[in-house]
């Protein structure tokens, strides 16, 4: 039997088991050996990749707008302001751009002429493998929404970019994925 090799961080996985699984999430429990030689337990949440999209529009007088969704998030018992985002559990191999176009239309009804991939993010690298792709959507036209059963309470709101920035300053937007995507797009000079 071959001895397990350390990963890039010096950790060795001694054993691994699936503790829980559903169509969206799998929880893995690993027994590890840390770089200092001490053994430990690590719980890892495995989830498919997701996308987050900032739909950037314009008013008739040339002012920039952003479309947000507002929905109830059961785990925290609150409604949150968010950029459109999601994953396709039934199509984990979908191309990120197709996923971005699909989620944007599903949640907001918007169809983007251009989807610009701005980068990637990890949604909690201390406990999950979930990787996200950030998109800027422009050239927007309105079509019908096609929300999933779990999104029926979702509402869609197009606000001035300045109003969204004020919501961020006032800590009214608390979704870390939304805040990170906004920051990445702003740092790249795209919004």
Automatic annotation (TrEMBL):
Q: What cofactor does this protein call for?
A: Mg(2+)
Organism listed in the record: Acetobacter malorum
State what protein this is by name: GDP-mannose pyrophosphatase
Check the record and name the Gene3D superfamilies matching this protein.
Nucleoside Triphosphate Pyrophosphohydrolase
Record-level GO BP terms: nucleoside phosphate metabolic process; ribose phosphate metabolic process
The record's CDD domains line, in alphabetical order, gives:
NUDIX_ADPRase_Ndx2
Occurrences of domain Nudix hydrolase (ranges):
46-181
Q: Which family does it belong to?
A: Belongs to the Nudix hydrolase family. NudK subfamily.
> Per the record, GO CC terms?
cytosol
The protein's UniProt keywords, in alphabetical order, are: Hydrolase
Segments crossing the lipid bilayer: none
Keyword match Hydrolase? yes
Q: Which InterPro entries match?
A: NUDIX_hydrolase-like_dom_sf (IPR015797), NUDIX_hydrolase_dom (IPR000086)
Which reaction(s) does the protein catalyse, per the Swiss-Prot or TrEMBL entry?
A: GDP-alpha-D-mannose + H2O = alpha-D-mannose 1-phosphate + GMP + 2 H(+)
Q: Name one GO molecular function term.
A: hydrolase activity
């Amino acid at each position: 039997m071959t001895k397990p090799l350390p990963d890039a961080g010096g950790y060795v996985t001694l054993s691994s088991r699936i503790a829980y699984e559903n169509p969206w999430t799998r929880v893995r429990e690993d027994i590890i050996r840390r770089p200092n030689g001490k053994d430990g337990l690590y719980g890892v949440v495995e989830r498919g990749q997701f996308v987050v999209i900032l739909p950037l529009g314009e008013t008739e007088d040339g002012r920039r707008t952003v479309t947000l969704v507002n929905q109830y998030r059961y785990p925290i018992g609150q409604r949150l302001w968010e950029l459109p985002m999601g994953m396709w559990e039934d199509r984990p191999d979908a191309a990120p751009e197709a996923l971005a176009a699909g989620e944007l239309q599903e949640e907001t009804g918007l169809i983007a002429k251009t989807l610009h991939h701005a980068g990637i993010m990890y949604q909690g690298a201390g406990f999950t493998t979930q990787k996200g792709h950030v998109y800027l959507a422009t050239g927007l036209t309105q079509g019908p929404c096609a929300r999933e059963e779990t999104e029926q309470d979702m509402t869609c709101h197009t606000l001035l970019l300045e109003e969204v920035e004020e919501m961020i300053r006032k800590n009214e937007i608390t979704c870390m994925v939304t805040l990170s995507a906004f920051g990445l797009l702003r740092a790249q000079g795209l919004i």
